[in-house]
Amino acid sequence: MSDLTLPTEAKAVTFAAYGEPDELRVTDLAVPQPGPGQVLLRVGGAGVNALDWKLRRGFLQGVFPVTFPHVPGLEAAGTVVATGPGVESWQAGDEVLGLASAAYAEYAVAEAATLAARPADLPVETAAGLPVAADTAVRGLGLLDLKPGETLLIHGAAGAVGTLAVQFAVEDGVRVIGTAGERDQEALRELGAIPVLYGDGVIDRVREAAAGEPVVAVLHTSGDGVLADSVALVGGPERVVTIAAAQEAGPLGVTFTSGGSTDTAVGGLSRTLALHAAGTLSAPVRTTLPLADATTAHELSERGGGRGKIVLLP
């Protein structure tokens, strides 16, 4: 039900064919209706993720086929404006964040069970970029089953997933070595990780940084051509997990993980919001752009290299 008067149509970003970023268009679509266990959000911000542009380019047709026109977007922060049957945890007017479907839009549907309340002192643009990264970081670390005192290598430790994974692992008493570019070395050090410059010779630099302690697990969030050396570093593929290299992972026996669950979505947000409450959360926003600039957002995301999330603001 809704306590608010809703429009029948609203703005959304769509693409009607696979291709370049300029396939993205802002169009008027019918406002979606929440089904059982769902809520409708007025979107305050939608995070941009690599999966969004990989879907748009058609790279994942065999894994995640889409129906055209497709509205990208996997996460949002916003205001609950309507609830579907069976939803008692949220009501119209609640400020929330979480995983959402077709989030590049003024209105989007989300599963009520995966949402969390947005604290008043957490900016909507920051909140919008947290759910996917939090879910992925919790899921990846969970697969590695780390113990306090063990040494973990995180490739791409300054990215959105990597930044949260570093914070969660350090909080758990894990020793973290993180790879990143030159400009992000100090940021990783401030998070409690041992920073290592990525690029040629990175594994040798990791061994040096480990200072004789065995590296027992690897979380690969980005970076090309490092999985085989990572497997060799830890002595086998059993404790190597990637979120970014599905094709490379298979032949090596490395675990590729994509897509979480209600447990990881809720667990990730719970841990992230606890860090925020403690005043220690690092979750930078790279830039914010209006829906009309979704093409620019995808161009920036594809180029990579920037620290923090790109967020669209309807």
TrEMBL record:
Listed InterPro entries: ADH-like_N (IPR013154), ER (IPR020843), GroES-like_sf (IPR011032), NAD(P)-bd_dom_sf (IPR036291), Zinc-ADH_QOR/CCCR (IPR051603)
SUPFAM superfamilies reported for this sequence: GroES-like, NAD(P)-binding Rossmann-fold domains
UniProt keyword annotation of Chloroplast present: no
Keywords on record: NADP
Superkingdom field: Bacteria
Pfam families on file: ADH_N (PF08240), ADH_zinc_N_2 (PF13602)
All copies of domain Enoyl reductase (ER), residue ranges: 19-312
Protein's UniProt name: NADPH:quinone reductase-like Zn-dependent oxidoreductase
